[in-house]
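Researcher: Batch entry, complex prediction.
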Amino acid sequence: MRIGVLTSGGDCPGLNAVIRSVVHRAVVDHGDEVIGFHDGWKGLLECDYRKLDLDAVGGILARGGTILGSSRVQPAHLRDGVERAKGHVTDLGLDAIIPIGGEGTLKAANLLSEAGLPIVGVPKTIDNDIASTDVTFGFDTAVGVATEALDRLKTTAESHQRVLIVEVMGRHTGWIALHSGMAAGAHAIVVPERPFDIAELTEVVGRRFSDGKKFAIVVVAEGAKPREGSMEFNQGKTDIYGHERFAGVATQLSGELEQRLGKEARPVILGHVQRGGTPTAYDRVLATRFGWHAVEAAHRGEFGMMTALRGTDITMVPLAAAVETLKTVPAERYAEAQVVL
Ligand code: F6P
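Model: Structure tokens for the complex:
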């Protein structure tokens, strides 16, 4: 079998573990040939790739990022993108393509699958918002980074008696905010699923000070927005690929809370540090299992499917169903955290 693998969209700790696992299972156990496309779909569209053998994946299990590079380019961005991809798959004699990516990548994978290409998707995102899988690798690492940052921020917030508003990633969902906020004992958590009321947030933080506490930590997901009419808010813009570029909710909240509370407030934007560096053991294991099962699915001819974690098992789910909706934080989870606005 000849398999093409690519990593597309925002990078994520664990991508290299999937690539390594695909190569180990395919080359060593099945005697397959594996090629890796550079920079995501761009590599497939431009026929830019390299052969991946055991040497190529040596020592990458614990390495962050992706040895193949990534981009947000998608076949749909080109008028002849789908046809071009199909042509290259035929020319290269590929029997299977394993794209590893998040929401946008999997939608592109589904499009190509519907156009007849032999696709087995592997979900990845630190945001943990892919439906049909309980967890995506990268999430555990990102939550760990954010939690460590929050623990550290508490001590400086306390020394200066400040309110720190810490912005974590999460475009559409508040999984990182919820988990890191719970793990670090944040005093308020603001998620995109639930537009916040600035008066309510002011009251929650203010109550802490009137109870005699000297500081407060608010965790906010980057995609969180105020309730209609709650406060003036700059909505941000879109980037060249039509992705939402946020205008800094933490910065806007910090200014507003400082004014309303008369307390020093500072925004802290964790940004891409959450995506960088070595994956946790949990993410390495999940990524390795996904890679192994993707190769097996390809050998069974199970295309148009995606690897997924259900409980402790890896199963295959239809790509079409997986990209239909995002996995948002269910309302029951807010109550458990007690501090979600
Ligand atoms: O999709 C993962 C993610 O980390 C989002 O949480 C974040 O909004 C986005 O990627 C940032 O992407 P970029 O690297 O293109 O700025």
